[in-house]
Write a structure and sequence with these properties.
By secondary structure, the protein is mostly helical. The chain has 14 helices and no strands.
């Protein structure tokens, strides 16, 4: 009887000892992208920029629901009305609602900014990958071509292309992309030069992997961080360039609700109706700041050594 009681007590003690070990929570697995997300969200300015960018996208997507008036509707009996009343941000010289035009202008900014940088990155990644991986003559030829495009100021080169193609959203996108890809190609080329002799690349080459597979599966994924950060920065720059082209009269059509067009129309009322240029300018500044903050946070998150 005593032995039975002793055995039962020992079994109970063993179960109690094993219980804490079983109750220990499993260690959460931290992925590379999880670390990047954590570093990004820890950057307060990056979070502020992300909020601004998300608000821009929502404004562009929901423009028909948010705009109180048709941005193209003219009311010549209600021109140059000061902010307040039925028109919170006033009206322009043709009686069009300023708030509605700013809201719809977000659409043009998003479309041109994202599309032009995406196209520039697409061209730059292809050329930069070829130049960095093959080197020698290929590198020399491709980088000399990039130097030719570097020699042209962005706005002047864009104006030449738009004059040849005609005004519109598509010509603006193409013109900005044509003179933006050289920076992408050089960034990627520099990164590839540092990783093309890495062990995993040499191993893939020794196993008989094709050149295209090595570039797509091994080289680009490990070299793209700088390009991603640059792309975020450059969307804001593309939006400013697009607004500048419209201000100069060679961007999108003047009747289109676009921030550069609004600034161009407001230049005749400087010092008289300053609200005509102040509110579109604020929209441009907030948009550019949003993308700059996101790009800065993305750069630090992708490569914490730069911090």
């Amino acid at each position: 009887m005593t032995e039975l009681t002793k055995s039962t007590a020992e079994a109970g003690t063993a179960q109690k000892a094993a219980a804490p070990a079983e109750a220990e929570p499993a260690i959460a697995r931290v992925t590379q992208w999880g670390e990047i997300r954590h570093r990004f969200m820890a950057n307060k300015l990056a979070v502020v920029g992300l909020v601004l960018v998300v608000l821009l996208f929502l404004t562009a997507a929901l423009a028909p629901l948010l705009a109180p008036y048709d941005p193209l509707a003219q009311n010549l009996n209600n021109t140059l009305q000061a902010p307040g009343g039925d028109h919170l941000l006033g009206t322009d010289a043709l009686g069009r609602d300023q708030l509605s035009r700013i809201i719809y202008g977000a659409r043009i900014a998003v479309i041109i900014g994202l599309a032009s940088i995406f196209l520039a990155c697409l061209i730059g990644v292809v050329i930069g990958s070829l130049a960095g991986y093959f080197g020698k003559a290929t590198d020399s030829v491709l980088m000399r071509i990039a130097d030719v495009f570097f020699a042209f100021p962005l706005l002047i080169g864009a104006i030449v292309i738009i004059i040849a193609m005609g005004r519109g959203v598509a010509p603006v996108i193409i013109s900005l992309a044509v003179f933006s890809w050289p920076t992408v190609s050089r960034l990627l080329r520099s990164s590839i030069l540092s990783v093309r002799e890495a062990d995993y690349v040499l191993a893939a080459r020794a196993l008989g992997a094709s050149t295209s597979r090595i570039i797509i599966r091994h080289i680009i994924p490990n070299s793209i961080a700088a390009v991603m950060a640059y792309a975020a920065f450059s969307v804001g720059s593309a939006i400013v360039a697009e607004a500048a082209l419209s201000f100069l009269g060679v961007g999108v059509s003047p009747e289109v609700a676009e921030w550069g067009n609004m600034l161009s129309a407001a230049k005749d009322f400087l010092g008289v109706k300053d609200y005509l240029w102040v509110y579109p300018s604020i929209a441009i500044v907030l948009t550019v700041l949003g993308f700059v903050f996101v790009g800065d946070g993305l750069r630090d998150a992708l490569d914490p050594k730069l911090r």
